[in-house]
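Bug #77: duplicate submission created two jobs. Keeping one. Sequence:
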Amino acid sequence: PGFRRGLVWSTLAVVAAAFLAFRSPTSGSDPEAEALWTDDAPGAFARAKADGLPMVIDFYADWCGPCKQMERTTLRDRAVMAELAKFVAIKVNVDHRPELAERYGVRAIPTTVVADPSGKVIDQGVGMLDARAYLALLATARGEPSP
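Kept job's structure:
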């Protein structure tokens, strides 16, 4: 009985750790950062077009380590969050929406695509971007000098 109980608790601990390690990168403890993003791509595309706003499309996967790192650091940076508020920000899980990844030519993740209100690519960044590189990408896409 003692061995089985220990085995059950060990198994539960491994399952819980795996769940926490592989949860969505939008899961987290910063509601302000999470509120900037949507995973409703069709709705976001319609909103961008209607409001004339450019889009930031973050392509990621739940299993992607650099995606998680970027979520914990770059996308929680206050300056990045302030700039993202000027865009329609969309999160696209490549495992759930492979057609969007293909449409935007995503070959590696994380990939950040900046598109105009019609969906045409303005610029993109591939790989883990720190806050400075991310802000430069957003500034370039808005036609502003890099910070």
